[in-house]
Specification:
This protein is mainly α and about 220 residues long. It has helices at about 20-35, 40-50, 50-60, 60-85, 95-110, 110-120, 125-155, 160-180, 180-185, 195-210. It is about 75% helix and about 0% strand.
Length: about 220
């Protein structure tokens, strides 16, 4: 009789073949679609075709996997903004704001699952929402808030309280994508069609700046 070889404890089999980024992107899409409470490691294992033991080994528990998934995309977004502002550092503040708005619109169209997770989490206070705001949202929106503060101090735009102003800008920019089914159902458009995205850039910057400029 052939003697069975007992596996040593440690790294699960086939872990070298994992594409962890793909798994995290799939996980983020699941969290966006089902909410944090609607996702289980077992369900993600079936969705990704990866054993749940491997998911636990590489990503820990569900909360750690959620953090790694949101961090992957959130940090990519932040890096895109760092690269943008490295190129436009010497530009006029209002032109920087226009370009920031344009970039956020394209990012929202590119990563709707990230925006959806943000909306789900920041509605109420919990450890995940606090972590998300501190680690990802503040760095991403910090560029915009720095520009707005400087332009208000210069007297070029209306002195609107930061909470209202950021809500006005970010809500106007992202709603087309975070409510894509509503847009399709009510208005018959595909929010992610490139024509719609480009049009949204032009319209939002026009409307936002009309509202922001002092008379």
């Amino acid at each position: 009789m052939e003697k069975k070889v007992k596996r040593k404890a440690g790294r699960p089999r086939d872990s070298k073949s994992l594409n962890t980024d793909d798994i995290l992107r799939t996980a983020l899409r699941c969290f966006a679609k089902l909410g944090y409470g609607g996702v289980t490691i077992n369900a993600l294992a079936k969705e990704t075709g990866v054993a749940d033991s491997l998911l636990h080994y590489h990503f820990g528990n569900k909360q750690e996997l959620w953090k790694k998934a949101t961090s992957l995309v959130g940090n990519e977004i932040h890096q895109e903004l760092i690269d943008l502002f490295a190129m436009i550092g010497d530009m006029d503040g209002l032109e920087k704001l226009r370009l920031y708005n344009k970039k956020i619109i394209y990012i929202s169209a590119k990563h709707p699952e990230f925006q959806q997770v943000v909306i789900q989490e920041v509605f109420s206070e919990n450890p995940r929402s606090a972590w998300l705001i501190d680690e990802l949202m503040q760095p991403i929106f910090g560029f915009m808030e720095t520009i707005l503060k400087a332009e208000i101090q210069k007297g070029r735009i209306k002195d609107i309280p930061p909470a209202n102003l950021s809500s006005f800008i970010i809500g106007s920019i992202t709603t087309l994508f975070t409510r894509s089914f509503q847009m399709r159902k009510m208005h018959g458009i595909d929010s992610f069609d490139q024509v719609q995205v480009d049009q949204h850039v032009e319209l939002m910057n026009d409307l936002l700046f009309t509202g922001l400029f002092k008379n």
